[in-house]
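re: the backbone from monday

yeah here it is again, tokenized this time
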């Protein structure tokens, strides 16, 4: 199933809801990790790097708003869907302000939650086609093509320039095939004055330093001597 390998961190303290949600999500093929305690939630996110988080607001230890803020300050970009009780509806705005992506009001139907999860994952790029990728995963490093950032698993973030994003997109579109310097110069730089193939090399090595954990031994942005460059996405 397509849901395999998609990990959900469920932060909820109500036993009956945990039971129902875990059962439903697992039967849909998701991997489910549960935090019943607000204090543990951020640590579990760091440890398990979920693809999406379902986050209750009223929790023992730490509330959902605090958790959401901490997650975003650590530069984790996975979607967060908040669970709000009916009398907390006014706080939805607050939730979205601090970096949640969506909210759902209790009591809710499981089908509605599943639909929201799928919509958020689609937006986050988990299912997107290579033409319309928003988030690119290179090993443990996330390249957010919309926000122009490379986010390492330890939270370290590098800002990418518009040209670097264009370069990534062009290489991505080549589907792992090598692209020559001349082609990059033509398509990405569009033969701007004072550019030459050396320009391409300089930019590639700068980009490599921003997206590779070990730029000296690149795993993803590869040089093929005498041929050009390619971007491996696995
Ligand atoms: Ca609760």
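seq for it, each position gets an aa:
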């Amino acid at each position: 199933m397509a849901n395999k390998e998609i990990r959900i961190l469920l932060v909820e303290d109500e036993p009956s809801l945990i039971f129902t949600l875990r059962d439903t999500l697992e039967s849909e093929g998701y991997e489910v990790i549960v935090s019943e305690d607000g204090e543990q939630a951020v640590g579990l996110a760091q440890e398990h790097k979920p693809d999406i988080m379902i986050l209750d607001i009223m929790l023992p230890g730490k509330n959902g708003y605090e958790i959401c803020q901490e997650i975003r300050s650590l530069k984790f970009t996975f979607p967060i869907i908040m669970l709000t009780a009916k009398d907390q509806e006014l706080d939805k705005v607050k939730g979205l302000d601090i970096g949640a992506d969506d909210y759902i009001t209790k009591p809710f139907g499981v089908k509605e939650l599943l639909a929201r999860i799928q919509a958020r994952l689609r937006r986050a790029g988990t299912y997107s086609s290579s033409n319309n990728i928003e988030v690119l995963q290179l090993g443990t490093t996330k390249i957010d093509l919309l926000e122009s950032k490379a986010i390492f698993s330890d939270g370290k973030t590098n800002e990418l320039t518009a040209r670097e994003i264009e370069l990534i997109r062009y290489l991505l579109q080549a589907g792992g095939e090598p692209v020559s310097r001349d082609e990059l110069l033509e398509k990405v730089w569009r033969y701007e004055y004072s550019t030459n193939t050396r320009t391409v090399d300089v930019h590639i090595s700068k980009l490599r330093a921003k997206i590779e954990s070990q730029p000296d031994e690149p795993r993803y942005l590869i040089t093929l001597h005498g041929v050009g460059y390619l971007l491996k996405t696995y």
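The domain at 135-231 is CATH 1.10.10.10 (Arc Repressor Mutant, subunit A). The first strand starts at residue 7 and ends at 11.
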